[in-house]
Design goal:
The protein has about 600 residues and is of the alpha+beta class. It has six domains: about 110 residues; about 70 residues, no CATH class; about 120 residues, no CATH class; about 80 residues, no CATH class; about 25 residues, no CATH class; about 50 residues, no CATH class. About 35% of the residues lie in helices and about 5% in strands. The strands form two sheets. A five-stranded antiparallel sheet has the order 6-3-4-5-7, with no helix packed on it. The longest helix is centred in the first third of the chain and has 36 residues. The termini are far apart.
Length: about 600
C-alpha cells in the first residue's frame, strides 16, 4: 500500500528559524536570571525588570515570530500551488517518528509554560512591589520614595494605599501606570508631580482597612521638643492633649477631632483650588438629619459660582493628606535632631545657623551640600574661633546631619521642597484646620464654625525638655514664648511658622521695614512703647526737642509729624504728600523734583 509523500514542514523557513532562536535565547536568559536571583537575590531593581518583564517578553516575541513565519510560509505555498496538504499540521500518533516529535514538543511546551507562569507570577508581584513603584523611575519618584522610607508607613506597600483590593482599581491603576510610563519616557511629566486628589481611591476603602475610625477615640498626649533661637539653644517642650474623640456615639466619644468621621454624620465641602487649601463652602449633615451650610464671609465667589464647585465628602485624607510622603519643615527637623543628640545643643546658635542654612535657595543638590557645610563651619570660624577649634567634630557632625535633613526633603530636579505640598494635619506650618475653622465660615442663621483652640486640644503648655515617660511639671509660663496681643492674637499660626521658612524674631522680618533707616537704630520699642501696638505712643519732641524751619515759624501748627515725615526713615515726603494739603500749588514749578529741593524746611 502506497503512502502520500510528506510535505516539507512549513516552519522550515528563515523567519521561523529566527523566531526559534529569539525564543530560545530569551528562555536561556530567563532561566539564568531566575537561578541568579534564587541564589544571590536581585542586586538592582533593574535586574527585576529584565528577569520578570523583558526576558519573558523576548520568549513570547520569539514564539510569535516562529508561528507567524510558519503561517506565512504555508500561505505562500498555497498561492503558488506547491502545497496540496491541509492548511494546519496533522499528527499521527501511530507513527513512531511523529509520536517522538510530539512528545518532545509537548515536554518542551510544558516546561516553557511553567517557566513563563513562574516569571509571570513574579512579574506581577514585582509590579506590585515598592521597588518597582519607587526605585525604577529614580528621578521622578525620588522625593516620594525617599520620604516613604522614613515614614510611619514604611512597611506598608504602595499598592495597599494607592490601589487597594479588587480588580476594578487594579485595572485603573495599570491603565494610569501606562500613561505615567509614557510620560517618563517622553519627559512630559510635571515637576513637581501634582497630588492626584481626584484620582485617589476613597480612604474608607484603603486607610480604614487598618485604621478603623470607630476604634480610634479618646485623647493622645503630644510632646514636641523645641529649641529657641538664642545663643544657648534653650531647650523647651510644648505639651498638649489632642482630643481625638471618636467615630461613633455608641462608645460615648462622638466629639473631638474625629467628629468629622462620625458614621452617623457627614461633612461635605467645596474647594476653590486644586490643592484643597481654599474652602469657601462647608455642609454638615448631623445624625438627627439637620443640614447646616457655612459660607466663608471673605470669599469672592458668588452663590452661583459656589454652586458650581465640585463637592467632596470629607474623609481621612482631607486632614491626614501626607501620612507617608512627609517632608518635615526645617525648624521641626532641627529640633528633633537637637533633642536626639544628633546635633550638639552645646554649639552656640546652632539652631538658628542650621535653620538659616536649610532655608536658603540653592541651584542644585551639590551646591546645597557645599553651601550648608560652608554656612555652618564659616559661622563658627568667624564668630567663635575657640569653639571652632575645640568642637570641630561636633561642628562637622552638625553639618552632616543638617545636610542629611536637606537631602530628605529638598529635590531641586523635581522642584520639591518643604513648601511644595501642603500638610493639613494641624495648623502650625500650613492653614490645615483653619481652612474651615477660621472664624469666617458662617451659616445663614449666624452660627460660626468655631476657631476655639480647646475644642480639638488643650492649651499648649511650655516647660523644660523632659525625657520620655517623665511626669510633666505644671508650668507657670505661657504656652507661647511671648504674649500674643492685638493683631498677633488673631493671625493664623502658619503666618509665622510657614513651612520652609525660619520663624521671624524681629519686627522688621514681618513688617518689611528698611533696617538701614535712621530711626531703626534705636529699636522699635523706642517709639512703639506698647508692645505689639502699631501706633507709637512716644512724643517725637522727646528726642527732637529743637525744631527749626517751618516748625519754629508755626507754618504747620496742626500737622502731625508723620503727615510730612515718612515713618522710620524720617525724611520729608514726596511732592504728592505736600500737594495733598497745598492743592493751590499743584501747578507751581511743574518740573520733576521735590518741594524740599527749593524750600529749605530746616532753616
Amino acid at each position: 500500500m502506497s503512502h502520500p509523500q510528506p510535505q516539507e514542514n512549513p516552519y522550515h523557513n528563515s523567519v521561523s528559524f529566527a523566531g526559534g532562536l529569539i525564543a530560545a535565547a530569551g528562555a536561556v536568559l530567563l532561566l539564568a536570571s531566575l537561578v541568579v536571583m534564587l541564589l544571590f537575590g536581585a542586586a538592582s531593581p533593574y535586574f527585576g525588570i529584565l528577569a520578570f518583564l523583558v526576558f519573558p517578553g523576548i520568549v513570547v516575541l520569539g514564539l510569535l515570530v516562529f508561528l507567524a513565519g510558519g503561517r506565512r510560509e504555508s500561505l505562500r505555498r498555497r498561492r503558488l500551488g506547491a502545497d496540496a496538504g491541509p492548511p494546519y499540521p496533522s499528527i499521527d500518533l501511530n507513527d513512531p517518528h511523529q509520536r517522538r516529535r510530539f512528545g518532545r514538543a509537548l515536554l518542551g511546551g510544558a516546561l516553557l509554560v511553567v517557566l513563563l507562569a513562574v516569571s509571570g507570577y513574579h512579574g506581577f508581584m514585582f509590579t506590585e512591589s515598592v521597588t518597582f513603584c519607587g526605585a525604577i523611575c529614580h528621578t521622578v519618584m525620588e522625593p516620594e520614595y525617599t520620604a516613604y522610607q522614613a515614614s510611619p508607613h514604611a512597611r506598608v506597600s504602595c499598592v495597599a494605599c494607592h490601589v487597594g483590593e479588587g480588580a476594578d482599581w487594579y485595572v485603573k491603576s495599570k491603565l494610569s501606570g501606562l500613561r505615567q510610563v509614557a510620560a517618563v519616557l517622553l519627559h512630559t511629566y510635571e515637576t513637581p508631580i501634582p497630588v492626584p486628589i481626584k484620582d485617589l481611591r476613597p480612604a474608607r476603602e484603603t486607610c480604614e482597612q487598618c485604621h478603623w475610625p470607630e476604634k480610634f477615640f479618646g485623647a493622645q498626649l503630644v510632646r514636641n521638643p523645641h529649641f529657641r533661637y538664642d545663643e544657648a539653644n534653650t531647650a523647651e517642650q510644648v505639651t498638649f492633649l489632642v482630643k481625638t474623640g471618636g467615630g461613633s456615639p455608641k462608645i460615648g466619644q462622638n466629639a473631638g477631632i474625629h467628629f468629622h468621621m462620625i458614621v452617623e454624620s457627614e461633612v461635605t465641602f467645596a474647594a476653590a483650588d486644586r490643592s484643597l487649601q481654599v474652602i469657601p463652602w462647608v455642609s454638615v449633615r448631623h445624625a438627627d438629619g439637620r443640614v447646616v451650610e457655612y459660607v466663608a464671609k471673605d470669599t469672592p465667589l458668588s452663590p452661583e459660582e459656589l454652586a458650581k464647585l465640585p463637592r467632596r465628602r470629607m474623609d481621612c485624607m482631607d486632614c491626614h493628606n501626607r501620612p507617608t510622603h512627609i517632608f518635615p519643615p526645617p525648624e521641626g527637623a532641627v529640633d528633633t535632631a537637637l533633642a536626639s543628640g544628633l546635633i550638639s545643643p552645646r554649639l552656640p546658635w546652632i539652631k538658628k545657623v542650621a535653620v538659616d542654612a536649610l532655608v536658603k535657595e540653592y541651584p542644585d543638590r551639590t551646591a546645597a551640600e557645599r553651601g550648608i557645610v560652608a554656612e555652618i563651619t564659616n559661622f563658627y570660624a568667624a564668630n567663635y574661633p575657640e569653639v571652632a577649634a575645640a568642637a570641630a567634630k561636633d561642628i562637622a557632625a552638625a553639618a552632616s546631619v543638617v545636610t542629611d535633613i536637606y537631602r530628605r526633603s529638598v529635590f531641586p530636579a523635581m522642584k520639591v521642597n518643604w513648601r511644595t505640598y501642603p500638610s493639613n494635619i494641624g495648623h502650625r506650618n500650613w492653614p490645615g484646620c483653619f481652612r474651615c475653622h477660621d472664624g469666617q465660615h458662617v451659616s445663614p442663621a449666624g452660627a460660626t464654625l468655631t476657631a476655639e483652640c480647646t475644642v480639638c486640644h488643650t492649651m499648649p503648655q511650655r516647660g523644660p525638655l523632659a525625657p520620655i515617660g517623665a511626669e510633666m511639671p505644671t508650668s507657670p509660663q505661657p504656652w507661647h514664648p511671648w504674649e500674643l496681643r492685638g493683631r498677633h492674637a488673631t493671625i493664623l499660626c502658619n503666618a509665622c511658622h510657614a513651612a520652609g521658612f525660619r520663624p521671624p524674631t524681629q519686627c522688621a522680618e514681618c513688617h518689611r521695614l528698611d533696617t538701614r533707616a535712621p530711626m531703626m537704630a534705636g529699636g522699635c520699642d523706642t517709639c512703639h512703647q506698647r508692645e505689639q501696638e502699631v501706633a507709637p505712643v512716644a512724643d517725637c519732641r522727646g528726642c527732637h526737642g529743637t525744631l527749626g524751619g517751618l516748625h519754629a515759624a508755626g507754618g504747620h501748627p496742626d500737622a502731625l509729624c508723620t503727615d510730612c515725615h515718612a515713618p522710620h526713615r524720617w525724611t520729608a515726603g514726596e511732592r504728592a504728600d505736600c500737594q495733598s494739603c497745598h492743592e493751590d500749588k499743584a501747578n507751581h514749578y511743574l518740573e520733576e523734583g521735590r518741594c524740599a529741593d527749593c524750600h529749605d524746611f530746616r532753616s
